Amino acid sequence: MPDEKNSRKYKFVVKMSVPEYQKLIEDFLKNENKPYSEHHIREKLFDTHINEGMPSSAEELLILLRIKAALKSVIKEQKVAGSLIEDPITREQVMYYSTSGHYAGPDG
Predict the structure, then answer these.
(1) Do 74 and 25 meet the contact criterion of CB atoms below 8 Å apart?
(2) CA-to-CA distance for 35 and 17, rounded, in angstroms?
(3) Four-point Cα dihedral 81, 83, 88, 89, nearest 10
(4) Is the whole-model pTM more than 0.85?
(5) How far is CA 98 from CA 30, 62, 78, in A?
(6) Residue 55: which residues within 8 A CB-CB, separation 6 or more?
(7) Could you tell me the maximum CA-CA distance found in the chain, to the nearest angstrom?
(8) What distance in Å separates the CA atoms of residue 85 and residue 66, rounded to the nearest whole number?
(9) What does the alpha-carbon distance between residue 95 and residue 56 come to, in Å, rounded to a whole number?
(10) CB atoms closer than 10 angstroms to residue 74
């Protein structure tokens, strides 16, 4: 069962608007020197562990949709760049996001 602090944070994340997600994502990536996948952005920035293939609630689906919309928007505005990188484990192409121009891969 999630503790009260995490529960409050989760409720806050659910209530955020797409522009609020955009600002947080952009600020986070500006301070990082390596690219991050959407999955890692969700975990590191929003402390949410959501199964993207099957969200367990309407709130999780809303968070996923807003993060995706925010990422599309910051790419469109050219504040963040996206690059397809092969995941070393699954061998699938995964979009990684960065503001530093560093696209060597998820491990640097």
Answers:
(1) yes
(2) 24
(3) 80
(4) no
(5) 8, 23, 11
(6) 61, 64
(7) 40
(8) 23
(9) 23
(10) 21
Please name every residue paired with 102 in a beta bridge, in sequence order, or none if there are none: none
d(C-alpha 63, C-alpha 25), whole Å: 13
pLDDT in tens, 62-106: 888 999 999 999 999 999 999 998 888 888 999 999 986 544 444
CA angle at 43 for the pair 1 and 78, rounded to the nearest 5°: 150
Rounded CA gap, 31 and 57, in Å?
31
Determine the average pLDDT of the residues in 44-55.
77
Number of Cβ within 10 Å of residue 93's Cβ equals 11
- Both tokens of residue 28? 């986070």
